[in-house]
Protein backbone atom coordinates (compact mmCIF):
# COMPACT_ATOMS: atom_id res chain seq x y z
CA UNK A 1 0.00 0.00 0.00
CA UNK A 2 1.20 3.52 -0.76
CA UNK A 3 2.10 5.58 2.28
CA UNK A 4 -0.06 8.44 3.45
CA UNK A 5 1.23 11.97 3.09
CA UNK A 6 -0.19 15.32 4.24
CA UNK A 7 -0.82 18.17 1.78
CA UNK A 8 -2.30 21.57 2.62
CA UNK A 9 -5.03 22.72 0.27
CA UNK A 10 -3.93 26.03 -1.33
CA UNK A 11 -7.43 27.57 -1.15
CA UNK A 12 -8.63 26.57 2.31
CA UNK A 13 -5.37 25.82 4.14
CA UNK A 14 -7.09 22.72 5.48
CA UNK A 15 -5.16 19.55 6.19
CA UNK A 16 -6.48 16.21 4.92
CA UNK A 17 -6.91 13.24 7.17
CA UNK A 18 -4.17 10.77 6.18
CA UNK A 19 -5.42 8.14 8.57
CA UNK A 20 -8.63 7.55 6.57
CA UNK A 21 -8.83 3.84 5.70
CA UNK A 22 -8.70 2.76 2.05
CA UNK A 23 -12.05 2.74 0.28
CA UNK A 24 -13.37 -0.30 -1.53
CA UNK A 25 -11.84 1.05 -4.74
CA UNK A 26 -8.38 1.25 -3.20
CA UNK A 27 -8.38 5.04 -3.05
CA UNK A 28 -7.52 7.03 0.07
CA UNK A 29 -7.99 10.70 0.93
CA UNK A 30 -4.45 11.43 -0.25
CA UNK A 31 -1.56 9.11 -1.03
CA UNK A 32 2.11 9.75 -1.73
CA UNK A 33 2.59 8.75 -5.38
CA UNK A 34 4.58 10.17 -8.26
CA UNK A 35 2.47 11.26 -11.26
CA UNK A 36 2.96 9.10 -14.34
CA UNK A 37 2.38 11.84 -16.94
CA UNK A 38 1.08 15.39 -17.42
CA UNK A 39 -2.57 14.27 -17.33
CA UNK A 40 -1.93 12.43 -14.07
CA UNK A 41 -0.16 15.46 -12.63
CA UNK A 42 -2.90 17.93 -13.61
CA UNK A 43 -5.79 15.89 -12.20
CA UNK A 44 -3.75 14.34 -9.33
CA UNK A 45 -5.00 10.91 -10.34
CA UNK A 46 -2.29 8.80 -8.68
CA UNK A 47 -2.18 11.11 -5.66
CA UNK A 48 -5.87 10.36 -5.06
CA UNK A 49 -5.25 6.64 -5.38
CA UNK A 50 -7.02 6.34 -8.73
CA UNK A 51 -6.17 5.41 -12.32
CA UNK A 52 -7.09 6.83 -15.71
CA UNK A 53 -9.16 3.74 -16.48
CA UNK A 54 -11.06 4.05 -13.21
CA UNK A 55 -11.78 7.72 -13.89
CA UNK A 56 -13.12 6.94 -17.36
CA UNK A 57 -15.32 4.15 -16.01
CA UNK A 58 -16.58 6.41 -13.24
CA UNK A 59 -17.39 9.14 -15.75
CA UNK A 60 -19.32 6.73 -17.95
CA UNK A 61 -21.32 5.43 -14.98
CA UNK A 62 -22.17 8.97 -13.83
CA UNK A 63 -23.34 9.92 -17.33
CA UNK A 64 -25.42 6.77 -17.73
CA UNK A 65 -27.03 7.39 -14.33
CA UNK A 66 -27.96 11.02 -15.03
CA UNK A 67 -28.48 11.03 -18.82
CA UNK A 68 -32.22 11.01 -18.12
CA UNK A 69 -32.06 14.80 -17.59
CA UNK A 70 -31.71 15.31 -21.36
CA UNK A 71 -35.16 13.74 -21.74
CA UNK A 72 -36.75 14.82 -18.45
CA UNK A 73 -35.86 18.53 -18.56
CA UNK A 74 -37.83 19.11 -21.80
CA UNK A 75 -40.78 17.24 -20.27
CA UNK A 76 -40.77 19.57 -17.24
CA UNK A 77 -40.08 22.89 -18.97
CA UNK A 78 -41.53 22.24 -22.43
CA UNK A 79 -45.15 22.92 -23.26
CA UNK A 80 -45.83 24.99 -20.13
CA UNK A 81 -47.36 28.32 -21.12
CA UNK A 82 -46.07 31.43 -19.38
CA UNK A 83 -48.07 34.49 -18.38
CA UNK A 84 -48.09 35.61 -22.03
CA UNK A 85 -49.21 32.23 -23.34
CA UNK A 86 -45.84 31.28 -24.83
CA UNK A 87 -44.07 27.95 -24.25
CA UNK A 88 -40.55 26.64 -24.75
CA UNK A 89 -39.85 24.15 -27.54
CA UNK A 90 -39.01 20.67 -26.20
CA UNK A 91 -36.42 19.84 -28.88
CA UNK A 92 -34.60 23.12 -28.25
CA UNK A 93 -34.64 22.50 -24.49
CA UNK A 94 -33.15 19.03 -25.01
CA UNK A 95 -30.30 20.36 -27.15
CA UNK A 96 -29.56 23.23 -24.77
CA UNK A 97 -29.71 20.86 -21.77
CA UNK A 98 -27.00 18.62 -23.23
CA UNK A 99 -24.88 21.59 -24.30
CA UNK A 100 -25.01 23.39 -20.96
CA UNK A 101 -24.46 20.25 -18.89
CA UNK A 102 -21.54 19.27 -21.10
CA UNK A 103 -19.77 22.63 -21.06
CA UNK A 104 -20.28 23.27 -17.34
CA UNK A 105 -19.26 19.76 -16.28
CA UNK A 106 -16.06 19.97 -18.35
CA UNK A 107 -15.33 23.40 -16.86
CA UNK A 108 -15.95 22.04 -13.37
CA UNK A 109 -13.64 19.11 -14.02
CA UNK A 110 -10.86 21.33 -15.31
CA UNK A 111 -11.14 24.07 -12.67
CA UNK A 112 -12.37 22.32 -9.52
CA UNK A 113 -10.86 18.96 -10.55
CA UNK A 114 -13.47 16.99 -8.64
CA UNK A 115 -15.56 14.05 -9.94
CA UNK A 116 -18.85 15.96 -9.80
CA UNK A 117 -21.15 16.46 -12.80
CA UNK A 118 -23.51 19.40 -13.39
CA UNK A 119 -26.86 19.53 -15.16
CA UNK A 120 -30.23 21.29 -14.95
CA UNK A 121 -31.45 21.06 -11.34
CA UNK A 122 -34.72 19.17 -11.03
CA UNK A 123 -35.99 21.14 -8.06
CA UNK A 124 -35.43 24.51 -9.67
CA UNK A 125 -36.81 23.59 -13.11
CA UNK A 126 -39.99 22.31 -11.46
CA UNK A 127 -40.23 25.50 -9.38
CA UNK A 128 -39.94 27.59 -12.54
CA UNK A 129 -42.56 25.59 -14.43
CA UNK A 130 -45.06 25.39 -11.58
CA UNK A 131 -44.65 28.60 -9.59
CA UNK A 132 -42.81 31.24 -11.61
CA UNK A 133 -44.00 31.34 -15.22
CA UNK A 134 -47.57 31.87 -14.11
CA UNK A 135 -46.39 35.35 -13.06
CA UNK A 136 -43.72 36.20 -15.64
CA UNK A 137 -42.62 35.16 -19.14
CA UNK A 138 -40.10 32.40 -19.77
CA UNK A 139 -37.32 34.87 -20.73
CA UNK A 140 -38.05 36.85 -17.56
CA UNK A 141 -38.01 33.68 -15.45
CA UNK A 142 -34.65 32.70 -16.92
CA UNK A 143 -33.41 36.21 -16.18
CA UNK A 144 -34.17 35.58 -12.51
CA UNK A 145 -32.14 32.36 -12.74
CA UNK A 146 -29.20 34.34 -14.17
CA UNK A 147 -29.42 36.85 -11.29
CA UNK A 148 -29.52 33.93 -8.85
CA UNK A 149 -26.36 32.54 -10.44
CA UNK A 150 -24.53 35.86 -10.33
CA UNK A 151 -25.25 36.16 -6.61
CA UNK A 152 -24.01 32.61 -5.98
CA UNK A 153 -20.81 33.32 -7.93
CA UNK A 154 -20.23 36.43 -5.79
CA UNK A 155 -20.83 34.43 -2.60
CA UNK A 156 -18.33 31.85 -3.77
CA UNK A 157 -15.68 34.29 -5.01
CA UNK A 158 -15.77 36.49 -1.89
CA UNK A 159 -15.52 33.55 0.48
CA UNK A 160 -18.99 34.00 2.00
CA UNK A 161 -20.05 30.55 0.88
CA UNK A 162 -16.84 29.01 2.23
CA UNK A 163 -17.32 30.80 5.57
CA UNK A 164 -20.83 29.40 5.91
CA UNK A 165 -19.54 25.96 4.97
CA UNK A 166 -16.82 26.15 7.65
CA UNK A 167 -19.36 27.24 10.27
CA UNK A 168 -21.30 23.98 9.93
CA UNK A 169 -20.37 21.47 12.69
CA UNK A 170 -18.59 18.33 11.48
CA UNK A 171 -21.35 16.01 12.73
CA UNK A 172 -23.97 18.03 10.87
CA UNK A 173 -21.87 17.69 7.71
CA UNK A 174 -21.77 13.94 8.27
CA UNK A 175 -25.55 13.97 8.69
CA UNK A 176 -25.90 15.79 5.37
CA UNK A 177 -23.94 12.99 3.69
CA UNK A 178 -26.09 10.30 5.31
CA UNK A 179 -29.27 12.20 4.44
CA UNK A 180 -28.20 12.47 0.81
CA UNK A 181 -27.53 8.74 0.79
CA UNK A 182 -31.07 8.05 1.99
CA UNK A 183 -32.41 10.66 -0.44
CA UNK A 184 -30.81 9.16 -3.54
CA UNK A 185 -31.83 5.67 -2.43
CA UNK A 186 -35.41 6.91 -2.04
CA UNK A 187 -35.23 8.49 -5.50
CA UNK A 188 -34.12 5.12 -6.84
CA UNK A 189 -36.95 3.31 -5.08
CA UNK A 190 -39.57 5.75 -6.41
CA UNK A 191 -38.23 5.95 -9.98
CA UNK A 192 -38.09 2.17 -10.19
CA UNK A 193 -41.66 1.69 -8.98
CA UNK A 194 -40.44 -0.22 -5.90
CA UNK A 195 -42.07 2.53 -3.80
CA UNK A 196 -45.29 4.18 -4.96
CA UNK A 197 -47.93 6.59 -3.75
CA UNK A 198 -51.12 5.13 -2.33
CA UNK A 199 -54.61 6.18 -3.42
CA UNK A 200 -55.35 6.85 0.26
CA UNK A 201 -53.96 6.07 3.68
CA UNK A 202 -50.15 5.92 4.04
CA UNK A 203 -48.26 8.30 1.73
CA UNK A 204 -46.14 5.50 0.24
CA UNK A 205 -46.38 1.76 -0.28
CA UNK A 206 -44.35 -1.14 -1.65
CA UNK A 207 -44.95 -1.49 -5.39
CA UNK A 208 -48.62 -1.62 -6.36
CA UNK A 209 -50.94 -2.49 -3.47
CA UNK A 210 -48.03 -3.85 -1.46
CA UNK A 211 -46.75 -6.16 -4.21
CA UNK A 212 -44.17 -6.07 -6.99
CA UNK A 213 -46.38 -6.27 -10.07
CA UNK A 214 -44.30 -4.94 -12.98
CA UNK A 215 -41.41 -6.37 -14.99
CA UNK A 216 -39.45 -3.05 -14.93
CA UNK A 217 -39.49 -3.09 -11.11
CA UNK A 218 -38.40 -6.72 -11.15
CA UNK A 219 -35.47 -5.76 -13.42
CA UNK A 220 -34.60 -2.99 -10.95
CA UNK A 221 -34.41 -5.61 -8.17
CA UNK A 222 -32.30 -7.93 -10.31
CA UNK A 223 -29.98 -5.03 -11.16
CA UNK A 224 -29.80 -4.00 -7.50
CA UNK A 225 -28.74 -7.48 -6.41
CA UNK A 226 -26.32 -7.86 -9.32
CA UNK A 227 -24.60 -4.51 -8.72
CA UNK A 228 -24.58 -5.13 -4.97
CA UNK A 229 -22.87 -8.51 -5.40
CA UNK A 230 -20.30 -7.13 -7.85
CA UNK A 231 -19.47 -4.23 -5.52
CA UNK A 232 -19.32 -6.55 -2.50
CA UNK A 233 -16.90 -8.78 -4.38
CA UNK A 234 -14.85 -5.67 -5.32
CA UNK A 235 -15.12 -6.41 -9.04
CA UNK A 236 -13.53 -3.49 -10.99
CA UNK A 237 -16.27 -1.69 -12.91
CA UNK A 238 -18.94 -3.53 -10.93
CA UNK A 239 -21.54 -0.75 -11.16
CA UNK A 240 -20.98 -0.26 -14.90
CA UNK A 241 -21.09 -4.02 -15.55
CA UNK A 242 -24.32 -4.24 -13.59
CA UNK A 243 -25.89 -1.35 -15.53
CA UNK A 244 -24.93 -2.85 -18.91
CA UNK A 245 -26.14 -6.34 -17.97
CA UNK A 246 -29.42 -5.01 -16.56
CA UNK A 247 -29.99 -2.85 -19.65
CA UNK A 248 -29.55 -5.88 -21.91
CA UNK A 249 -32.08 -7.75 -19.79
CA UNK A 250 -34.44 -4.75 -20.04
CA UNK A 251 -34.11 -4.67 -23.85
CA UNK A 252 -34.95 -8.38 -24.00
CA UNK A 253 -37.94 -7.89 -21.69
CA UNK A 254 -39.28 -5.01 -23.79
CA UNK A 255 -38.88 -7.00 -27.01
CA UNK A 256 -40.64 -10.00 -25.50
CA UNK A 257 -43.49 -8.31 -23.64
CA UNK A 258 -43.93 -4.96 -25.48
CA UNK A 259 -44.42 -3.15 -22.16
CA UNK A 260 -44.36 0.43 -23.45
CA UNK A 261 -44.56 3.54 -21.25
CA UNK A 262 -46.20 3.51 -17.81
CA UNK A 263 -48.74 6.21 -18.74
CA UNK A 264 -50.23 3.76 -21.26
CA UNK A 265 -49.54 0.54 -19.37
CA UNK A 266 -49.33 0.61 -15.54
CA UNK A 267 -46.76 -2.18 -15.77
CA UNK A 268 -44.62 -0.29 -18.29
CA UNK A 269 -41.40 1.71 -18.09
CA UNK A 270 -41.43 4.92 -16.04
CA UNK A 271 -39.44 7.13 -18.40
CA UNK A 272 -37.32 5.67 -21.21
CA UNK A 273 -38.23 2.51 -23.11
CA UNK A 274 -35.21 0.20 -23.56
CA UNK A 275 -35.19 -0.49 -27.28
CA UNK A 276 -32.41 -0.68 -29.83
CA UNK A 277 -32.74 2.65 -31.70
CA UNK A 278 -33.54 2.69 -35.42
CA UNK A 279 -31.58 5.93 -35.92
CA UNK A 280 -28.47 7.10 -34.11
CA UNK A 281 -27.82 10.72 -35.11
CA UNK A 282 -29.92 13.85 -34.53
CA UNK A 283 -29.12 17.50 -35.30
CA UNK A 284 -29.47 19.79 -32.24
CA UNK A 285 -31.35 23.11 -32.36
CA UNK A 286 -29.77 25.83 -30.20
CA UNK A 287 -32.48 28.45 -30.71
CA UNK A 288 -33.01 29.06 -26.97
CA UNK A 289 -29.48 30.22 -26.22
CA UNK A 290 -29.47 33.85 -25.10
CA UNK A 291 -33.27 34.06 -24.78
CA UNK A 292 -33.48 35.63 -21.32
CA UNK A 293 -34.62 38.99 -19.92
CA UNK A 294 -32.56 40.08 -16.93
CA UNK A 295 -34.82 42.77 -15.46
CA UNK A 296 -38.21 42.32 -17.13
CA UNK A 297 -39.77 40.50 -14.17
CA UNK A 298 -39.09 43.44 -11.84
CA UNK A 299 -41.26 45.65 -14.01
CA UNK A 300 -43.97 43.04 -14.52
CA UNK A 301 -44.59 41.88 -10.91
CA UNK A 302 -42.75 44.54 -8.90
CA UNK A 303 -39.35 44.65 -7.20
CA UNK A 304 -40.48 43.00 -3.94
CA UNK A 305 -42.15 39.99 -5.56
CA UNK A 306 -39.27 39.50 -8.02
CA UNK A 307 -36.75 39.76 -5.17
CA UNK A 308 -38.65 37.10 -3.23
CA UNK A 309 -38.45 34.75 -6.22
CA UNK A 310 -34.70 35.38 -6.46
CA UNK A 311 -34.37 34.73 -2.71
CA UNK A 312 -36.11 31.36 -3.13
CA UNK A 313 -33.88 30.42 -6.07
CA UNK A 314 -30.69 31.41 -4.25
CA UNK A 315 -31.54 29.54 -1.04
CA UNK A 316 -32.50 26.37 -2.87
CA UNK A 317 -29.54 26.51 -5.28
CA UNK A 318 -26.96 27.62 -2.69
CA UNK A 319 -27.61 25.04 0.02
CA UNK A 320 -28.72 22.17 -2.19
CA UNK A 321 -25.40 22.30 -4.06
CA UNK A 322 -23.37 22.88 -0.91
CA UNK A 323 -24.92 19.86 0.76
CA UNK A 324 -24.51 17.72 -2.35
CA UNK A 325 -20.83 18.59 -2.70
CA UNK A 326 -20.28 17.90 1.01
CA UNK A 327 -21.77 14.44 0.70
CA UNK A 328 -19.98 13.60 -2.53
CA UNK A 329 -16.58 14.73 -1.22
CA UNK A 330 -16.99 12.61 1.91
CA UNK A 331 -18.15 9.64 -0.11
CA UNK A 332 -15.09 9.98 -2.37
CA UNK A 333 -12.73 10.10 0.60
CA UNK A 334 -11.60 13.59 -0.45
CA UNK A 335 -12.93 15.51 2.56
CA UNK A 336 -10.48 16.86 5.14
CA UNK A 337 -10.93 16.57 8.90
CA UNK A 338 -12.94 19.81 9.00
CA UNK A 339 -15.24 18.64 6.20
CA UNK A 340 -13.76 20.88 3.49
CA UNK A 341 -12.37 19.41 0.30
CA UNK A 342 -9.77 20.30 -2.36
CA UNK A 343 -10.37 23.46 -4.45
CA UNK A 344 -13.52 24.22 -2.50
CA UNK A 345 -13.80 27.88 -3.51
CA UNK A 346 -13.27 27.06 -7.18
CA UNK A 347 -16.02 24.45 -6.94
CA UNK A 348 -18.43 26.99 -5.43
CA UNK A 349 -17.67 29.60 -8.11
CA UNK A 350 -18.03 27.22 -11.06
CA UNK A 351 -21.25 25.79 -9.64
CA UNK A 352 -22.59 29.35 -9.49
CA UNK A 353 -21.58 29.87 -13.11
CA UNK A 354 -23.69 26.81 -13.88
CA UNK A 355 -26.74 28.71 -12.66
CA UNK A 356 -25.84 31.66 -14.89
CA UNK A 357 -25.32 29.38 -17.89
CA UNK A 358 -28.58 27.53 -17.22
CA UNK A 359 -30.55 30.77 -17.23
CA UNK A 360 -28.76 32.02 -20.34
CA UNK A 361 -29.67 28.83 -22.24
CA UNK A 362 -33.25 28.53 -20.86
CA UNK A 363 -32.50 25.14 -19.26
CA UNK A 364 -32.85 26.40 -15.64
CA UNK A 365 -30.03 26.53 -13.11
CA UNK A 366 -27.31 23.92 -13.67
CA UNK A 367 -25.99 22.50 -10.42
CA UNK A 368 -23.93 19.61 -9.05
CA UNK A 369 -25.86 16.35 -9.35
CA UNK A 370 -26.13 13.90 -6.50
CA UNK A 371 -26.12 11.20 -9.20
CA UNK A 372 -22.35 11.81 -9.39
CA UNK A 373 -22.21 9.47 -6.41
CA UNK A 374 -22.69 6.56 -8.83
CA UNK A 375 -19.42 7.38 -10.60
CA UNK A 376 -17.69 7.89 -7.25
CA UNK A 377 -18.96 4.48 -6.23
CA UNK A 378 -17.31 3.16 -9.39
CA UNK A 379 -14.00 4.69 -8.28
CA UNK A 380 -13.93 8.22 -9.75
CA UNK A 381 -11.86 10.60 -7.62
CA UNK A 382 -10.76 13.43 -9.93
CA UNK A 383 -11.93 16.00 -12.42
CA UNK A 384 -11.03 13.68 -15.29
CA UNK A 385 -14.23 11.75 -14.59
CA UNK A 386 -16.19 15.03 -14.80
CA UNK A 387 -14.54 15.82 -18.14
CA UNK A 388 -15.62 12.39 -19.42
CA UNK A 389 -19.20 13.07 -18.30
CA UNK A 390 -19.14 16.49 -19.98
CA UNK A 391 -17.88 15.09 -23.29
CA UNK A 392 -20.59 12.43 -23.22
CA UNK A 393 -23.24 15.12 -22.59
CA UNK A 394 -21.98 17.04 -25.63
CA UNK A 395 -22.11 13.86 -27.72
CA UNK A 396 -25.61 13.16 -26.42
CA UNK A 397 -26.87 16.18 -28.34
CA UNK A 398 -26.11 14.32 -31.57
CA UNK A 399 -26.91 10.80 -30.34
CA UNK A 400 -30.13 11.39 -28.44
CA UNK A 401 -31.60 7.96 -29.39
CA UNK A 402 -28.75 6.23 -27.55
CA UNK A 403 -29.53 8.10 -24.33
CA UNK A 404 -32.97 6.49 -24.43
CA UNK A 405 -31.66 2.93 -24.25
CA UNK A 406 -30.93 2.71 -20.51
CA UNK A 407 -34.23 2.76 -18.55
CA UNK A 408 -34.41 4.73 -15.33
CA UNK A 409 -35.21 1.51 -13.47
CA UNK A 410 -31.66 0.33 -14.20
CA UNK A 411 -30.07 3.64 -13.20
CA UNK A 412 -32.14 3.54 -10.01
CA UNK A 413 -30.47 0.30 -8.94
CA UNK A 414 -27.09 2.05 -9.05
CA UNK A 415 -28.43 4.95 -6.97
CA UNK A 416 -29.67 2.63 -4.22
CA UNK A 417 -26.28 0.88 -4.04
CA UNK A 418 -24.46 4.20 -3.78
CA UNK A 419 -26.95 5.41 -1.17
CA UNK A 420 -25.97 2.39 0.93
CA UNK A 421 -22.30 3.35 0.51
CA UNK A 422 -22.94 6.89 1.72
CA UNK A 423 -24.64 5.62 4.88
CA UNK A 424 -21.18 4.70 6.16
CA UNK A 425 -20.69 8.30 7.31
CA UNK A 426 -23.19 7.71 10.11
CA UNK A 427 -20.31 6.35 12.21
CA UNK A 428 -19.03 9.95 12.54
CA UNK A 429 -22.13 10.98 14.49
CA UNK A 430 -22.37 10.70 18.30
CA UNK A 431 -26.01 9.82 18.89
CA UNK A 432 -25.38 9.52 22.64
CA UNK A 433 -25.45 13.34 22.86
CA UNK A 434 -29.08 14.28 22.20
CA UNK A 435 -28.18 17.93 21.45
CA UNK A 436 -26.38 16.42 18.46
CA UNK A 437 -28.68 13.46 17.85
CA UNK A 438 -31.91 15.41 17.29
CA UNK A 439 -30.58 17.95 14.73
CA UNK A 440 -28.68 15.32 12.75
CA UNK A 441 -31.68 12.97 12.82
CA UNK A 442 -33.95 15.74 11.52
CA UNK A 443 -31.40 16.57 8.83
CA UNK A 444 -31.19 12.96 7.70
CA UNK A 445 -34.91 12.17 7.58
CA UNK A 446 -36.11 15.51 6.20
CA UNK A 447 -34.18 15.11 2.94
CA UNK A 448 -35.93 11.97 1.67
CA UNK A 449 -39.28 12.76 3.29
CA UNK A 450 -39.53 16.22 1.66
CA UNK A 451 -37.61 15.28 -1.48
CA UNK A 452 -35.18 18.16 -0.93
CA UNK A 453 -31.56 18.38 0.21
CA UNK A 454 -31.98 22.10 0.96
CA UNK A 455 -34.94 21.42 3.27
CA UNK A 456 -32.90 18.90 5.24
CA UNK A 457 -30.03 21.35 5.64
CA UNK A 458 -32.42 24.10 6.70
CA UNK A 459 -34.13 21.97 9.35
CA UNK A 460 -30.72 20.86 10.57
CA UNK A 461 -29.39 24.43 10.85
CA UNK A 462 -32.44 25.70 12.73
CA UNK A 463 -32.69 22.75 15.11
CA UNK A 464 -28.93 22.73 15.81
CA UNK A 465 -28.97 26.42 16.72
CA UNK A 466 -32.07 26.19 18.90
CA UNK A 467 -31.41 22.89 20.68
CA UNK A 468 -27.79 23.62 21.50
CA UNK A 469 -28.44 27.21 22.60
CA UNK A 470 -31.43 26.40 24.78
CA UNK A 471 -29.67 23.42 26.39
CA UNK A 472 -26.73 25.52 27.60
CA UNK A 473 -24.38 24.92 24.68
CA UNK A 474 -24.63 28.31 22.99
CA UNK A 475 -20.87 28.44 22.45
CA UNK A 476 -21.17 25.48 20.11
CA UNK A 477 -23.27 27.56 17.71
CA UNK A 478 -21.28 29.72 15.29
CA UNK A 479 -22.86 33.12 14.70
CA UNK A 480 -23.15 32.35 10.99
CA UNK A 481 -25.32 29.37 11.90
CA UNK A 482 -27.79 31.82 13.44
CA UNK A 483 -27.73 34.03 10.34
CA UNK A 484 -28.36 31.12 8.00
CA UNK A 485 -30.96 29.59 10.34
CA UNK A 486 -32.86 32.88 10.29
CA UNK A 487 -32.67 32.89 6.51
CA UNK A 488 -34.02 29.35 6.36
CA UNK A 489 -36.86 30.28 8.69
CA UNK A 490 -37.80 33.00 6.20
CA UNK A 491 -37.37 30.52 3.34
CA UNK A 492 -39.76 28.05 4.97
CA UNK A 493 -42.53 30.66 5.28
CA UNK A 494 -41.95 32.23 1.87
CA UNK A 495 -45.36 31.03 0.63
CA UNK A 496 -47.44 33.24 2.96
CA UNK A 497 -45.01 36.11 2.41
CA UNK A 498 -45.38 35.82 -1.38
CA UNK A 499 -49.17 35.69 -0.98
CA UNK A 500 -49.08 38.80 1.18
CA UNK A 501 -46.89 40.65 -1.34
CA UNK A 502 -49.16 39.60 -4.20
CA UNK A 503 -52.19 40.91 -2.32
UniProtKB/TrEMBL annotation:
Entry keyword Transcription regulation: no
UniProt superkingdom: Bacteria
Key words, A-Z: Membrane, Transmembrane, Transmembrane helix, Transport
GO CC terms: endomembrane system; plasma membrane
MF terms in GO: purine nucleobase transmembrane transporter activity
Protein localization: Endomembrane system
A Pfam family hit: Xan_ur_permease
Record-annotated membrane-spanning stretches: 56-81, 93-111, 116-135, 141-160, 172-190, 210-232, 239-257, 301-319, 382-399, 436-467, 479-497
The family this protein is said to belong to: Belongs to the nucleobase:cation symporter-2 (NCS2) (TC 2.A.40) family. Azg-like subfamily.
Name this protein carries in UniProt: AGZA family xanthine/uracil permease-like MFS transporter
Organism: Microbacterium natoriense
Amino acid sequence: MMSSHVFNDPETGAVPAPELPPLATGATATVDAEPKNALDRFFEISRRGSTIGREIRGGIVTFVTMAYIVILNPLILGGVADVSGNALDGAQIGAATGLTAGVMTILFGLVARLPFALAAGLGINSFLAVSVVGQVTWPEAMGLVVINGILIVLFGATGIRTAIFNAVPAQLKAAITVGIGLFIAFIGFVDSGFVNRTPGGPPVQLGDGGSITSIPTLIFLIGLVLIGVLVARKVPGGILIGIVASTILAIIAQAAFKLGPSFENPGGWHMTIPEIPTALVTIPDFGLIGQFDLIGSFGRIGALSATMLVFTLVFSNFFDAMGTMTGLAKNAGLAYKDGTFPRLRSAFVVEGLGAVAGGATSTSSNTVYVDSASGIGEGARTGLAAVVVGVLFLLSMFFTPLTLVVPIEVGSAALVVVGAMMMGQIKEIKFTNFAVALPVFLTIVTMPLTYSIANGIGVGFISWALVNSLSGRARKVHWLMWVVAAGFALYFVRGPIETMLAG
